[in-house]
Prior knowledge:
The protein has four helices and 13 strands. It is α+β, with helices and mostly antiparallel strands. It has one domain: Beta Barrel (Porin), CATH 2.40.160.210. It has a 13-stranded antiparallel beta sheet with strand order 1-2-4-5-6-3-10-13-12-11-9-8-7. A hairpin with a 5-residue loop joins β12 (249-257) and β13. α2 (43-62) packs antiparallel against α4 (195-214). It is globular. The termini are far apart.
Amino acid sequence: MYDIRDPFARFLGLEVSDVTETGLITAAPVDENACNIYSIAHGGFVYAVGHVTAALAAQLCLGRQTVVVDTSSQYLCALRPPEVQTEAFLVRSGRELLVYRTEIRDARGALCCIQTVTLKGVSYPEAPATDFCQTIFPAPADAPVNPITNVAHPRISPHFAGRCHIYNLGPREDGLYYAMELWPHLCNLYGALHGGALYTLADVAAGGTATFLLSKRPVTVASDIHFLRSARQGPVYAQSRLIRAGKQLLFYRIDLTDGSGEPVAMANFVLQSVNFAPVLPTAKDFKSKVFSSEE
């Protein structure tokens, strides 16, 4: 069995199932820690297993060290426990860029997500472990409640997003402001915040804005993210902006910046409002009008 050294891939529980000349198959457990409040795999988790599988395919099949620079994702159906299986196929190989298609399936073999992943060859040295100092903490129990979101900020996100240490910092401009720090298990081998973690932050910012500000129950149906530079200075912030709201679909733009204020990624999300009822219990201090006693 291949020993995966990438900290974030290990955090996901990813294992390599099979290696071919041009492709790779991986598997990972989908338990409560990988899910959202609907008891389905979190969109960030689903994205991340595809992102990591494509990068591993480039390394194991072609012997190329790469980073992901661009990904588009189409979510076809909910991915439920107990397992996710991902296969990466090489679509195009150039001198600097590689393009992979990933197919992400549940344990029954149902196709849940399709991605097109573009990677760039790099020669980064592996970064030594650095000391980490947490700077964002949940608001104390007696903190005042924000009148717009009905919670006190900073507020830790629930379930998989909480495991990624993503915090809701409250309303700013026309959306919500979210942040995550460079915890060691959220970084890649080069000491930067992993692209899968960055995407999860963007996904949470889009979904959280729809939940808190529009009283929706959103799921991601499509997205694209463009990575501009490595995020090596935390915290990393995500600002969500509603671009267009339809009867069923919501369109968001997410801008991500690092602790220096420099942009590190930008993403677009299409969310669909669904009538799912929360299945997993929410954290005791996670309150909003979306999950009120009227449900």
